[in-house]
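As a next step, the fold was encoded as tokens, giving this record:
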Amino acid sequence: MSSPDTNAGSTAERRDGLLLPGLDGANPLGFLAALGLLKVLSDPGIFEVLGMNWTKSAGTWVPVLHASGGPALEQESLLKVLNDRLVNNINSHPAKLLQELQNAADSLEKRREIFAQGVTGGDRIRLDWISSLASDFAPPKSINQLQTTRRDNFYRNLKSVIARNKSEHLRRSIFHPWDYADALDNQSLHWDPSEDRRHANQWNEPSGDPHRNKHGGMLGANRLALEAIPLFPSFPESDTLRTVGFTGVRSTDTRWTWPLWGHKSSLPIVRSLLTLEPLQCERLKPDDIAALKARGIVAAYRTSRILVGKTPNFTPARCIL
């Protein structure tokens, strides 16, 4: 774990920023939600300076937001900014590209036209989403390794999450311990390890469980987390896609490792931290640990991407640093 000096620095920065106690950095969904929040708030015209770091709180790591030159960094003002920026119609969101790519699945020429539109138009947002969702050099059915929702449900669930999210969903996800009081059915992106619900471990068959219509999810966290998708580009390799932060391609060896940093960092810096090579070592050696700590990494977590039947799941993460 981190040294006393690193923890002291994190605590000092915490006093100057806004603590987001609901977003657990040890949970894949919590980490992605924090990244998504940082990405949304990094849009031009909101803050002049924006950064995030992680600090220990209530037995885990939670993010601290730092900002200047914009709205007051308070709970209500933050929620207002998010409500103003988060659209409620997928037709107004870059994730709409997924449907375009699916419709062009049988035509390489059409798929390459979709890719070319972002390049020729200089649309960085479109390019980031395309590079995370697909590649014109990989088979159409190849997916980002971050995607754990079944391929036939992913776009539908994105659409529902975007449409149904409200301010109170965000408040409960960002500022309170998670109560999992939101429905799972058709409005979850399947990034929380608690959604690994197997036949032998519950009374109802998972696919027909009536409780999925009532509780089990955190809608606000999913809404923020989907905004982090473009931070994980994928690259073609043979007949599949390899995603930033992941190693392995089979259900038996695929894992995702992510870092938590102790110094307030802007979005461009965070992008680079996600790609640090030592994070992907199977076992961290002293030199790897030293290299990560030198870059301000105070902890790192790793989850396996497994298959339960035909559905991918993330296992509970374990701390490797």
Remarks:
- DSSP finds eleven helices and twelve strands in the chain.
- The CA atoms of residues 159 and 291 lie 41 Å apart.
- The chain has one domain: 4-89+151-229+244-319.
- The longest strand covers residues 297-308.
